[in-house]
Structures are given as structure tokens and as C-alpha cells.
Amino acid sequence: MENREDCRRGETIGGDTEDRQHSCEGLDSGKKKQPDLYLACLTKQHLIMLSVAVGLVLLIIITATAVVLTKKSDSSTSLNKFSTGGDMLDFLVQSGVISKPDGLLATWFHRANDKEAMNKALASDVMILEADVTLEGYGTANEKPIPIMAHPPDIYSDNTLDQWLDAVLASKKGIKLDFKSLASVGLSLDLLRQKNLNGEINRPVWLNADILHGPNVPGYMPIVNGTIFLQLIQEKFPGVTVSSGWMVGYSPPLFVASYTRPMVEDMYNMIKDIPQKVTFPIYAMLARSGWQHISWLLRQSPRFSLTLWQGSIHPNVSDLLFIRENTDPDKVYYDIYEPTLSEFKEAARQQGLLRRFYPGGDLMNFLNPTLHSDTDFLSAVTQHNSLEVHWFTVTDQASLLAQLSDDAGGMLVVRVGSDADRPGVPLVEGSGKSSEILTLQDVLQLLGRTAERWGIYLQIQNQQLLEASLQLLHSAYSREELYRPVWISMSGDNTNSFVSTVELLFPYVTIVLTEQSWPPLIPETVSGLSQRVALHLKTSTLPKGQEELHSLMGMMDRYDVIVEGDMRSSAEALSHLKAIMMQRKQRANLYVITNQS
Length: 597
What we know:
- This protein is of the alpha/beta class.
- It is built from 22 helices and 20 strands.
- Strands 3, 4, 5, 6, 7, 8, 9, 10 and 11 form a 9-stranded mixed beta sheet that branches.
- Helix 7 (185-196) packs parallel to helix 8 (226-236) and helix 21 (546-555) crosses helix 22 (571-583).
- The chain starts with a helix and ends with a strand.
């Protein structure tokens, strides 16, 4: 027996097996040969079958793991690392769903709240999911500290924020969460922070709330406390884009008022010190009528953008084109419904159409449409462009027509006066001496028919002519015949009356203050304007010292500057001013009108 056990051990261990087999052959002679056993209970056949089974199980496990990893790699894990506070358009370009950073290319799905709507959105080709967050049973005795996906008045849902995030993070979609009350904000931010600990989110996150009362909304309507909303973001999950908006009402024909300067100023004061990117939701039906104030807000920081949204009433395609043609493509998102969105995109693709330029816009952007308003650094050539703008003083129709044929464009200077035969009618000073009298209305009509790259600078004598001129401008603009820069100044020192009249009758202009001395005395009234403001200086009043010239350059952060007069008498000061301008990293518009213009 002992020898038989030794023989078995020699087979299993593998040590000099042949010798042990020979020595044990006699022990089994005359007896029926028993099958060899392994591990004391398994035959060789059993061992082979077991090995095959184990191999199959391992193969299934490996295959299943590979499938899971492949699915993940096809979804969120295939994305390159991306900050939750990063730019949405950069993310969409990086993801390969759009070709360039253009807000018109981004697409949206609204109220992707319950699981059915969420799954429909995830299965579609939309790029950004917008969903509403509240608490389960919000405002009732059954309220629970669980963020769910539901739009008021709903307070229950088959989808929690936790579940919603898990599903969306398995896709390549962008995220926008809308909060209608403050109660769910802190818990939602905690959940976002937890999800992002291991880099799970890996895409931009927008957080939206109406934090101010907007157009046509009474002050007693409940809104989200903006101070606490922004504070919670800074404390719990600062890596987001803040979408801070106004509660808006719109019901024509009565409730159609637009955004005002106090509204946009209140918003700016609330968010100016936060470090995040900020997008302002703007109701599309009111965007154009409030553009003087909205554009002011957009100009305040390169971190800012707009998101145009619509309600049940579709906006006018012409109004949408107006916004697009007065902003950079990466500064405005268009959350617009079909069929208006497709009509808008088609119109935006058409070439050769007259640009719907905002009359109060930047002259340099008008003359150089590719010039971005928020460019941080400009080449010397670009900086020099404002110095090369051509200024032409209009005196008669023949010379005006000759100038309008010049494709290079520039600014027409029109000195507006009147005569005894036509009191109160705006006329072009100097006309009528050797040709027919040329009225301001004649000039506007000629511009509307022939000129695409000419702006107009009206230098008006008095209050009566100012009112008449503004009415003509308003009429042309209403007919969509005034898509060019309009600058206006008025003789005299009654700036308050000048500004208030412009605000009342036709505010879509650049206001020009004619300064006769240095330093310029800028009234307090001007500092609160949404319009662009230009300072018109005489060469004889230009400061000579380096410190004063640097002070003038500092003013160009807020104002355009025109220098007019004999360039030879102030050549040195102007040369220094140009040199300082070339060293700047920010945009500055310095224009020169010579006596020969």
C-alpha cells in the first residue's frame, strides 16, 4: 500500500515517474486496473471537464467586462478631461458634435425631467439637456430632503437628481439645471460635488435661477434669493457656469415693456465679483427692444454671454438676425423652438444680405465685421485701423454721392442747421450755396439706397433740431432703413437736456460730448448711460505731458475719442498718443478728423 501511494505521488508531483512506475508494476499484477485519481477524488476525464468549464466561465467574465468597458468608453469616459466650469461651446467642439464655437449650433431639450422625457432626450441628437430640480413633496408635510426632477407645480417624480445625473453622465450631453426655489440648491450642489470627486461629470454644468424681477413682473412675485444662490455655489460647488436671469412677463398688447438700465445694472452688481462664467437668459421677444441695455451688460466682461429663450410666442426671425449680427457667434446661445429655429439658421447662412447693424454699435466693428469686441490683444495693424477711418464732411448732394461710391466706407459728418424759410427742418449746413438745399432726410434716404459701409455723425445746433433729427432717425429705423452707426452731438453745455432727449426719442446711438478744454468735464448723467459715449476733443486742447496723455488713454477704456483740428500744431502730442495706444493690450478707438476732411 505504501508503495502504491508512492507511485501515485510520483505521477502527480512529476519527479522520476518512470522508475516509480516500474517498481510498482508487480503490485497490480493479476488485479483489475483501477482508474487514476487526482486530488483524491477526480479522474483525469473529470479534471479535463472541470478545466474546460472554468475556462468558459473566465471567458464569459472577460467578455462581459470588455462589453461594459466598451460601452463606457463610447459614452462619458471617451470624453477628454473637461472642467465642469468650462465653456459649453468648447466642450461641444471637443466632443465632435459641432465644428466651431457658435452658439447657434448648440441644440437644447427642455424639461427632460421624468424618465420618459429624459430617455427621449438621451436618445436624440440634442446636445444640452435642461431639467428642473425641486424637493420631493416640496412645500407639503411630506417634503423630503431628496432633489427630484420636476417642474412646478409638480412636486413628485419618478426620477431623482441622483438617478438623472447617472443616466446623463453616461452620455455626451451638456447639463443645465434649473432651480425654481432655493430649497433644493444646497442638496443638489452637495450631490454634484460628490459625483465630481472622481471626475465623473467631465463636462460643463450650468445652474440657472431667476434671481431678479424682470420686465412686466410685479415685485411681489417670488424669485430665488440671488445672494444666497450665488453664495451656495461658491461654498459647495464653484466649478459651474452661472445662468442668472430675470423673471419675465409678456402678454401683448399691454405687457410688452423690455429690459431697462436699472434691471441690467442690478444684475451686474450682483454677479460682477463672482469668478464663474455667466450667461444671462434673455427673453427673445424683448431682446431687440432692450438691446441698448443688454448690449451694455454683455460688454462688461469677456466672461459674459447671453442665452436667448422663447415662450409660447415665437420670436421674429429678423429680430434674431439683429442679435446675431451685432454679437460674436460664441457669445449668444439660441434656445429657440422649431420651426423658427430652422428658419433662423437658414437666414443666417445666406450671404450678401444687408447687415442689421445696431446704430449704437461700435464703428470699428461695423467697418471690420470680423473684429471681435472682447479681443484681449490686437496687432499693430488692427490698432491702427481706427486712426485710418475716413471722415467726410457733407456739404452738397454731388460730393456726397461721390463719397458713397467709395467701398472703403467711413463716417459722414453732417452739420445740422436750419434756415428762415424752413424753421425747425434739419438741413445740411453749407448746402444751398451753389446747389440745391440738402435736408437730413435726403441724406438718410441716399444712405438707405446706396451705402453699406458708411456711418453718420450728426453735429446738431440746438434742441429743436435735435428733436426733429431724432424723429427722422426713429422713423428710418422703424422702416429697417438705418442699419449703420449713428453718432450725435449738440452744441451748448446743456448735457442733461441733450441726453434725456436722446433717451426719450431715439436712444440707439453713440452720444458724443464735445469738450473744449482739458481735462474734459464729464457730467454724472453720462456715467449711467447704456449707450456708447465718445469724447470729441480739439487738437489745441490735447494734453502735452506724458502723465496727462496716459490719463487720456485711461479714459479710452470707457469712451471712444475723436481728435479734430490742425494735426501739424499738435503733431508731437498726437504722436505720443499713438505710441501709447500701440502699447495697449485692450481695444481703444482713437479717431482723427483733420481740417481737410
